[in-house]
């Protein structure tokens, strides 16, 4: 927690499909979750200078692990 918007976005880009961004405020991505070992929709919420404040995961039944969560 506390990571900058730019740092989180850069770390997500190689292995996730970024579906929506709100500059400095939020990121929505789709990709594989090592924690749950399946495809997830991931939400990253930022708060000004405090950086990353919240991360939420939702199941993504429309995505396939065999298809690299696409």
What labels describe this entry?
single chain; 70 residues; mainly beta; 1 helix; 46% strand
Give the topology string: H per helix, E per strand. HEEEE
Decide which structural class fits the backbone: mainly beta
**Unreliable stretches covering 5 or more consecutive residues:** none
Number of strands: 4
Order of strands, widest sheet: 1-2-3-4
The separation of the N and C termini measures 27 Å
Q: Quick gist of this model?
A:
The chain has 70 residues and is mostly beta strands.
List the helices and strands and how they pair.
Blueprint: H1 5-12, E1 16-22, E2 26-33, E3 38-46, E4 52-59
Antiparallel strand pairs: 1-2, 2-3, 3-4
Describe this structure in words.
- The structure is a single chain.
- The chain has one helix at 5-12; strands at 16-22, 26-33, 38-46, 52-59.
- With 70 residues, it is mainly beta.
- The protein has one domain.
- The chain has a 4-stranded antiparallel β-sheet, covered by helices on one side.
- The longest helix is centred in the first third of the chain and has 8 residues, at 5-12.
- 10% of the residues are buried.
